[in-house]
Amino acid sequence: MMINSHNLSAGGAGGSLFSGFTRLSKGLAVVLVAGYAILQIFPPALSYVALIPAKTIPFAWNLMTAGYIEQSIYGLVFNTLGLLFIGKLLEPIWGSREFLKFIIVVNFLTSVCAFVTTIALYYITTQERFLYTPLSGFHGVLAGFFVGIKQIIPDHELITFISLKAKWMPSLLILTSIVITFLTSESASYLPFLIFGTYMSWLYLRYLQKNPETNWKGDPSDEFAFLTFFPEFLRPVIDPVGSVCERLFCGRSEVSTEGNGHILGGAPLPGSDPIEASRRRERGARALEERLAAEEVAASGGGNAEESSPHIVMNASENV
User: Fold this and answer.
1) pLDDT at residue 276, rounded to an integer
2) What is the C-alpha separation between 160 and 155, in angstroms, rounded?
3) 228 near 221, Cβ under 8 Å?
4) For the whole model, what pTM was predicted?
5) Residue 109 burial by CB count (10 A; 0-12/13-18/19+): exposed, middle or buried?
6) pLDDT of the residue at 135
7) Are 113 and 192 in contact (CB under 8 A)?
8) Alpha carbon distance 309, 226 (integer Å)
9) What gap in Å lies between CA 227 and CA 235, rounded to an integer?
10) Pick from 284, 279, 289, 283: which is nearest to 4 by CA?
11) Where are the domains of the chain?
12) What is the CA radius of gyration of the chain?
């Protein structure tokens, strides 16, 4: 099911573009703003809440707090707006509990990976800046949100004049970040969070996220495979990496394809049926479309729309 681009533009009419933010997203936005304000009032607090590899032991809590601390006003504005706008698309589909769980898990795993990487770089280069540079920011989770959009509406065109589909947004974000890192060294501290945020969120959605309808975990459909983050000519090279992930998380020593479904020991793996994968995406697209329709009604209908909008969003969540 494709979402009509007219609904996207109509949803922003009459100021509704800046309305309809979920309560959880607004609460997390307050946390980001408060964290930035604390650093402006008491700068030494950065040593206790940011990820500084040399101080992570014994300050292990910075593996959790670093993702919610913004060091620049530009990062604060970009990540806060991203949280609010993408949150009002994903949270009604996933549910508030799953949305918060996704943020907590991806944030923690991203920080752990960044910590391990910086320690490895220190031993390779012996440069102490890798140990003492404060790393923080919500951009790792924000990169994960784009992976969620890729999963739900992969073929939806986010930017029509260049035919940019949602499924390419995570890859484009990483590629752009790598290019910017070569142009300005200040952006290098963002790169680990963006890369690990993207792939930790993919691992979570691919293997760990629980489907409330079927009680199955993950999304093993071919349309969400590791290869889909890369262009066609690179996929033969990347395929071994995806195979390692499959064996590591699923224990698939022998995986074959039959009718485009994964087979293990003669039985289809749960959720690998392409029909089920198509239904999952259709439900996500329908829920998103109903959300946008609710905003369109709110923009044109006035007072009564305020009452009808929550019911539409509730129906969207129930459909998923």
Assistant:
1) 53
2) 12
3) no
4) 0.76
5) buried
6) 93
7) yes
8) 37
9) 6
10) 289
11) 5-319
12) 21
Q: Tell me the angle at which helices 96-125 and 73-94 cross, rounded to the nearest 10 degrees.
A: 140
Cβ–Cβ under 8 Å, residues 319 and 287: yes
pLDDT at 246: 73
Backbone angles phi, psi at 262, to 5 degrees: -80, 140
Distance from the first to the final alpha carbon of the chain? 14
Low-confidence ranges of the chain (pLDDT < 70): 1-18, 159-162, 212-214, 249-320
Three-class DSSP category at 4: coil
Question: Cα separations (Å) of 310 from 11, 12, 290, 305, 316?
Answer: 15, 17, 11, 9, 10
Alpha-helical regions (H) of 153-261: 169-183, 191-203, 235-250
- CATH superfamily, domain 5-319, is Rhomboid-like (1.20.1540.10)
The dihedral built from the CA positions of residue 256, 259, 261 and 265, taken in this order, carries a sign that is: negative
Helix (H, G, I), strand (E, B) or coil at 212: coil
Supply the pLDDT for residue 102: 96
- Alpha carbons 154 and 283: distance in angstroms, whole number: 13
CB 131 within 8 Å of CB 214: no
CA distance 85 to 115: 29
- Neighbouring-strand partners of residue 135: 51
The structure tokens listed for 252 are 């698939």
Q: Round to whole Å and give the CA distance between 53 and 115.
A: 6
The string over 243-276, giving b where at least 16 C-beta atoms fall within 10 Å of a residue's C-beta and e elsewhere, is eebbeeebebeeeeeeeebbbeeeeebebbbeeb
Distance CA 81, CA 135 (A): 21
> Where do we find the tokens 């770089």?
121
- The residues pairing with 55 across neighbouring beta strands, listed in sequence order, are none
Length of the chain: 320
